[in-house]
Amino acid sequence: MFELTDDQRALREAAREFAEREVRPRAIDLDRQGQYPAEILGELGDRRWTGLTLSEAYGGKGGSLVDLVVLVEELSAALMPVASALALHLGVATVVERFGTGEQRERWLPEMARFETVGALGLSEEHAGSDKSGMETTATKVGDEWLLDGHKRWVTNYLDGDEVLVYARDDPEAPFPDGVTAFLVPTAEFDVEEVWDTMGARPVKSPKVRLDGVRVADDRRIGPVGGAYRQRSTLSTGVNVPARGVGIARAALEDTVAYTAEREQGGSAIGDRQGVRWRAGEMAMRVETARLLTFRAAALADRGEDHRHEFAMAKVAATEAAVENANEAMQLHGGIGYTTEKHVERYLRDARLLTLAGGPNEGHRDTLGETTFERYRRER
Ligand SMILES: Cc1cc2nc3c(=O)[nH]c(=O)nc-3n(C[C@H](O)[C@H](O)[C@H](O)COP(=O)(O)OP(=O)(O)OC[C@H]3O[C@@H](n4cnc5c(N)ncnc54)[C@H](O)[C@@H]3O)c2cc1C
């Protein structure tokens, strides 16, 4: 059975209180205006939650991935893109902590823990989406420096960020995933090519940016030459994606229970109808299944155990729970749910991102199929 520790319960209470007080009341306006939640993220930085899983030696909180799941659920329940911004940033900082040198950790992590230096991930490209082997950005060693050429797209946090963790091919002939090296590149070195207007996740933009002959000193290389993509597969920070799904799915459920208990039609609350109550029960079942799967994947990752099976399940179940619950919430709110007066139309738009980002669910289903055949194969 999975149980949170007392410290994790305290973190959940503090994060929920913060999200309810500081995030949720501003969520509709930030979404409508497509405005970066800089102030909120600054406050998260003051609490060093933006460095939650970094070690205390570098200004972090020394937290686990289960702690990250706890925090991300609460933030996402209030405004999903706040959780995205924090998680993408922390993912970059984690790469610096895990694979950087002592000097690089000293240089970047204390400011990253406080969100004074903001990280963004430059991995995806036009031909490197769900399959990153199509990566075309190159890194060429010239003397003591590297010359970076190419583009990155969907760089969340870029517009308000400071450093992009760029993955580039140092040896395009090497069989992928070899021949990929990572660098921290200041945002000022890029040209912005496209800032997309998106269906959801509107407060935190994810633009397409170019690197044209950008010179990067070797002391900005994070990890070994040629081995950076292989190293990525040992990270488990991706648990933030299902955790974001759990947050939206829960918020959709809570709003639905509150609204249907109040809203009367035909002489009684619509929440008194069996047809509605059964649906609310299904919504709760999705939330709790998704949460347990996500905690289990994070707990296995924290213990250093193989969690490919559990993670794939969590990613698919939690992100689809978010879409289904948001859709149900809209239906059960009726017309008012279709307006921006309520949060539910945003839940649906934000949830829709999660099944296709962080690797589309089809790819995670491929993994799940593979691990299922490994795990359940018995001689009969
Ligand atoms: C708002 C937003 C923010 C993002 N933030 C970042 C970021 O900060 N940094 C970053 O590096 N990337 C980021 N991404 C990129 C994201 O991870 C990619 O969009 C994702 O990996 C999918 O790549 P793609 O969009 O090119 O889709 P494609 O790879 O072109 O896939 C398109 C569709 O094909 C189907 N498909 C793909 N593979 C399979 C398969 N194996 N089997 C069956 N069907 C399949 C799926 O339905 C999939 O949705 C972001 C994306 C978005 C939209």
From TrEMBL:
The keyword Flavoprotein applies. One of its GO terms (molecular function) is flavin adenine dinucleotide binding. Residues 120-214 form the Acyl-CoA oxidase/dehydrogenase middle domain. InterPro entries: Acyl-CoA_DH_CS, Acyl-CoA_Oxase/DH_mid-dom, Acyl-CoA_Oxase/DH_mid-dom_sf, AcylCo_DH-like_C, AcylCo_DH/oxidase_C, AcylCoA_DH/ox_N, AcylCoA_DH/ox_N_sf, AcylCoA_DH/oxidase_NM_dom_sf. Residues 362-380 have a biased composition (Basic and acidic residues). Keywords: FAD, Flavoprotein, Oxidoreductase. Residues 241-370 form the Acyl-CoA dehydrogenase/oxidase C-terminal domain. Residues 5-115 form the Acyl-CoA dehydrogenase/oxidase N-terminal domain. It holds the Pfam family Acyl-CoA_dh_N. Residues 358-380 are annotated as: Disordered. Its cofactor is FAD. PANTHER family: ACYL-COA DEHYDROGENASE (PTHR43884), ISOVALERYL-COA DEHYDROGENASE, MITOCHONDRIAL-RELATED (PTHR43884:SF12). Belongs to the acyl-CoA dehydrogenase family. This is Acyl-CoA dehydrogenase family protein.
